[in-house]
Each structure stands twice: as C-alpha cells, then as structure tokens.
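Let us practice reading a record.
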Amino acid sequence: MLKLCLCCVLAASAAPAADPPSAQIANGGVHAKLYLPDAENGYYRATRFDWAGQIASLEYQGHNYFGQWFERYDPKLHDSILGPVESFNAIGYDEAKVGGTFLRIGVGYLRKPEETRLSDFKTYEIADGGKWSVKTGEDWVEMTHNLGGVYVYRKTVRVAKGQLVLEHSLRNTGKTTLDTNVFNHNFYMLDNQPTGPDVVVSVPFDLGHGDDWRGPGETKGKELRYLQELEKGQTVSSTLTGYADRASDFDIRVENKKTGAKVRQTGDRPLSRLYFWSIRTTVCPEPYIHVHVEPGQEQSWRIRYDFQ
C-alpha cells in the first residue's frame, strides 16, 4: 500500500493539478496539442520562456516529436515547459534599480530583486503581465500579447501536411528601441527514445564547437553524434560554431535512426548564436536570432518544421 501511495504522489508531482487551457489543431496528418497562455491557470507561468505556443505533443505518420521531458512539474518552475518554446533575452535588466522592472518579451515586466546578476533559472515577480488574447481555427492558433505602451507580440502556430510553422511579429508601440535575441529551445523527444548513438543532428555547414563542450559526444563534419546512450544525469552540451551570416544556415536536422523519426527546422533569419543541450530524455538544438525594432516599427520572422 505504501509503495502504491508513493507512486501516486510521484505521478501527481509530474502533472498539473487541473487541466490548463489548451487547443487541438490538425491538418494533413499532423495532430498537435498546445497549451495556451493564461495568468491564472496556464500550464506555464514562470518567467524564462515566452508563454505562447507550448506544444505538448505533435504526431505525424506514427511518430511523436514532443512531450514531457522532465520529472518534476511546477507551473512556476523555469523549465516546466514543453515542445518548441522560445525565450527572449531580458531588456533593461542592467539599467533597472533593485525594486525596479526589466522586460522579458512574451512574459511582461519583471521585478528586479537584490542579486548579483540575472538568472534564467529563477522565476521573478511579474510586475505587469500585459494582456493575452487567443484565436483558434482547425489548423492554427494565434496568440497575441499586448503590453500597453511597449509592444504587441503575435505568435501564430499552424500545421499542414508534414509541417509545423511558427509565425512571429513584434510591433514596438513604445518610445524606446526593443533590441534582444530570441532562441528556440525545441525540447525534441523523438518517439520518446533515450538520447544516444541512434540520434544524429546535422547542419549545412562544417560544425565546430566552443571550449564549453560537455559530455560523451562529438562534432564531425556537418554532424553532431553521441558516443554512448546518455544515463540519467549526463549531459551533452556546447556552443556550436561554423555558421555564416545568412538565413540558409538556419537549417537543423534531428533524426532517430532507430525509429525513423526525422525533423528539419529552418528559419528565415540568420543565426546570431547556436547552442546545443541534451540529456537522456531530450535533444535540444537552440538557434538564436537577433530582434531589433525601433519605435513605431515591426519585425516579423518565421520558423518551419518539416517532419518525416
């Protein structure tokens, strides 16, 4: 009986207490579930990632590409989040005084505590979360974040045959420039298989890495490979190099050769940085792009996923 109760407690800790707002979209054999932004009941209410477009699952031709990669769930934990999710670098943190505010696009204004530096792994107090609105269709969801007098951020998630498309726009409605970088963490879980030699990551350029490399893997030519199956607690991670200042280098493929699941991620903007992080349960190429929007102007960008 004690063992059964313990299992129930562990299961409960890895799932939300109530069903958060969500949407189901489908087209051309692609079926996806999204969690929607909601300040009271949303699946994710922390302050590291953009609240729009968390993709809890996506299935195509018998393969599943995203899911819950972590053990402990808490809606206000920095990485209790699923699927291809994005994070904007903070704006105005260094200039803000203790007790003042800084900006994280897709979240809002955050309160600066007394600390030595910004932490991506801390959940900050939200001083002004703006207003979210959501529109849905059979194969799309549009999420708009309006932070009054600062910006209107819109993210539309669409599915088509073998595809997932993320469309973004950021309109500056304030008086100061919005300058930041945004990256997509991806959190791939190809058929829920453990990360190891069956997984290959490839790009269209000769791949190098920084001196921050960790773990049993290697870059060779245009590929990143694993030397062994990762155990719990093991990581392969590094800054990746070799790309040029052109959108065609934003082209990342991840394949599980054992199951045949493949995904190709492409963007319409040049990479400003490329990082890679993985553990036993998830493989995460993290492509960054630069966002610069003057007052009264708007910038748009697009990321596409092709599945096999």
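A brief commentary: Residues 1-308 form a domain with the Beta-galactosidase; Chain A, domain 5 fold (CATH 2.70.98.10).
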